[in-house]
């Protein structure tokens, strides 16, 4: 915000929103993991905040993607105009589904885990459509964008995170 355009520069606001969500979701997650042992009710409430913060991070990512990595040929298209509103809807649905899944843990643990995984995978996949299109374009046109390597690493880490969350590795190998 202290850069060349200052706070009046509209290009800095999506980055600030994204960075804010980058700070909020680890804070909410660490609070959830710290205070969830107080009681069953506290556990649910703490994880509700954790899921909401993670969904907000997804929305922050969508804002940043919309502002900075949308392909030029997609700018001002119907998809571009609907992208952020759909991301807001995804945030609400993802938070609701992941919170609801906590009530199913005892009766249907597999369905609970599957719905919670879906609640976070779907918004990630939707938010990443412009990024995946960039990957495709760079394969076809063999571009040399220096940020592409970082995007590949970020995507690999996201898929690794999903795999670890869904498979419960390594804690499955040594329970307790």
Question: How many structural domains does the protein architecture include?
Answer: 2
Structural class assignment: mainly alpha
How much helix, percentage-wise, in residues? over 70%
What is the chain-wise order of helices and strands?
A: HHHHHH
Number of helices: 6
Q: What radius of gyration results from the CA coordinates?
A: 18 Å
Q: Indicate the overall shape.
A: globular
Number of strands: 0
Spans of 5+ residues with little confidence (pLDDT < 50)?
none
Distance between the termini: 47 Å
**Sheet bearing the most strands, described?**
none
Average per-residue pLDDT, rounded, comes to 91
The share of residues in extended strands comes to: under 5%
What does this protein structure show overall?
With 176 residues, this protein is an all-alpha fold. The protein contains 6 helices and no strands. It has helices at residues 12-35, 40-68, 78-103, 109-127, 129-141, 147-167. Helix 1 (12-35) packs antiparallel against helix 2 (40-68), helix 2 runs antiparallel to helix 3 and helix 3 (78-103) packs antiparallel against helix 4 (109-127). The relative contact order is 0.09. The mean pLDDT is 91.
